[in-house]
Every structure is written in structure tokens, then in C-alpha cells.
Amino acid sequence: MYPDLEPIEPTEAVEMYLAEKRSELADATLRSHRSRLSHFIEWCDEQDITNLNTLTGRDLHRYRLWRREDGNLALTSEKTQMDTIRVFIRWAESVNAVKSDLSEKVVSPTLTGDDNVRDVMVDAEEAEQILTHLCTYEYASERHVCFRLMWRAALRRGAIVSLDIQDYEPEDQALEINHRPESGTPIKNKFHGERFIGLSDETCDILDAWIADRRPERKDDEGREPLLATPQGRPHPTTIQTYLYSVTKPCFSTGECPHGREIEDCDAAADRTKASKCPSSMSPHALRRGAITHWLSSDMPETVVSDRGNVSPEILSKHYDRRSERKKMEQRRQFLDSI
């Protein structure tokens, strides 16, 4: 029926695609592709599609509608899902797994205005309240160290995971961020993400106390000594995420619930591993966005913010800078006398 195509099952095709992309994509990106394509495999199973040769544009439209039935799938997420499918189908065309030009029939939402920009962030007042609570009740704990580094240095989750004790230079008050994919700790932007981060006296005091008194003496599977070690070794990225969710839920630092829940009966309040179920808890990216916006609002030059946060000026403006237009005007006003 399809003489130019070679039969292949969806699962096998996805695995071949991921194997080819392994040398091109960062580990985190590859995991994201695997996760998104797992939905496609599930849909194929439901539709009894055992050979991608038979896939049509109408099938891909049905898949999009099937994914849209997930009530939690935002427009931006739908676009990400379908963009990944398009890339996968384009690859499938190249290996004679699907009909030519099928990728052109993948419909992805068009985002307009601010559809692709999220405003959720931890503001400076909230962050300082959390830091005060941690400093008082969990000084130099793993959550204190993690939150402080992510707020004061706007480090990404992957950078926190990648840090070794040797990357901390107490005499120079600095952290060195390194891309080490060969030993399991790649970072965003790979070698372009490597940099030195200057630290304040207070941050160094906290790190010194963590290393001296509270850090578990553990190495990872590669024999390296993670800075933010856990009893099991190097923290997993989801562990970092759990730390952040657990300290950004309002009841952690205020003792009050803005959602009218009884704290003692709330799973999100009682169990830190379930803190993400709190509607007000924040992700690592929301903390990073808040930190960068705070720096910009504090008159830190954009070039300095860009270098410290390892983010291009274009991405900085589009995805991180949440200052109001009035705030930007007031900051520019201070330069008027020199014009």
C-alpha cells in the first residue's frame, strides 16, 4: 500500500529518534522530548496504530484534539507538544517511516501577544520573608542553601545540581559553574553557561556553616563531592524542585493559608513532597524570574544581569523582566539631568 515506506512501530520510531538526537540535545531537553512523545505512543496504542506508515494528517489532528482534552494543558503547552511532534514527524520522513511532507500537516497553535510569557514569580518581599524564616529556623540547612543560591544568584535548577564542593571558592567569595556532561551534570547552554558567580559575605557564611556542620559526607556515583549533597549523594533535579515548592507555600513562612484550608489537615502543608499541590507554591523558574526582575528593579545594569543570570538580552526582556512600564520610566528618569 505504501511501497516507498518501511514499516515501523511507533515505540521503535520514537526510540530511534531519541537515540539520534542524543548527541544534539541537552539531557534535560531529551527528557522533555521523551516525555512529550510518550503521549503520542499512548495515543497510538489507544488508536491501534501499529505502523507509522499509515499515519495521516487527519490522524495528527485527532491526536491534537486528544491532547487538548487534558484540561490542564495550557495553550503554550499545547504548542510545545505539537512542535515536538512536528520535529519527530519530520525526522520520520527522513527514514521513510511516514509519507513525505506529513510534517507540514501538523497544526500547532499560534501564540499572540503575551501568550508565551508567564508572569508568575516570587517577588522580593516574599523572598526576603522566606529567607528570614529559613535563617531563623533552618540556618544553613539544605533548603536554606538552595533557596539562597537560587534567589541571590538566580541559578537554574541544573546548575545547583551540578555544583561540587571544589566549585566553591570561599577566599574569593565565588562559585564556578561548570558543564560536566561526561560525569552526569550538564547545564543549560552547555559550555556557554559556564561562568563565575560572585557571592556576598552572608551567603559565604551560610555555605561555610553548611559544609562544616550540616552537609552529609557523601560522593556521587562518579566519585565527585556535590556541594548540596543529600544522604543519597547528589540531589536529583526533582529534589531541588521539592525544596523550592516546600518553602514558597505561604504557610511555611507566615503560618497562614490564603486558601482557607486548615493547615493541620492539608497534605501540601504537612508533607513537603506534596507541597506542589499548594496553589500558591512556586517553581524554581518562578524564583529565578523574580530574582532577575528584582535585580533589574534595583538598577543593576541589564548587561550585568544578563551575564550573571546566563540569559541573552532578548530572552531576558521577553521571559524574565516583569517590571511595569512605569517602573522602567522612573528608572530612566534618574538619567535625565545628564541629557
TrEMBL record:
GO biological process terms held by the UniProt record: DNA integration; DNA recombination
Keywords: DNA integration, DNA recombination, DNA-binding
InterPro entries linked: CB, DNA_brk_join_enz, Integrase-like_cat_sf, Integrase_catalytic, Integrase_recombinase_N, Integrase_SAM-like_N, Tyrosine_recombinase_XerCD
All copies of domain Tyr recombinase, residue ranges: 117-333
Any Pfam family matching the protein: Phage_int_SAM_1
CDD domains associated with the record: DNA_BRE_C
Keyword Electron transport: no
Cleaved signal peptide residues: none
Top-level taxon of the source organism: Archaea
MF-aspect GO terms: DNA binding
PROSITE patterns: CB, TYR_RECOMBINASE
Core-binding (CB) domain mapped to chain residues: 8-93
Entry protein name: Integrase domain-containing protein SAM domain-containing protein
Organism encoding this protein: Halorubrum tebenquichense DSM 14210
Lineage of the species this protein comes from: Archaea, Methanobacteriati, Methanobacteriota, Stenosarchaea group, Halobacteria
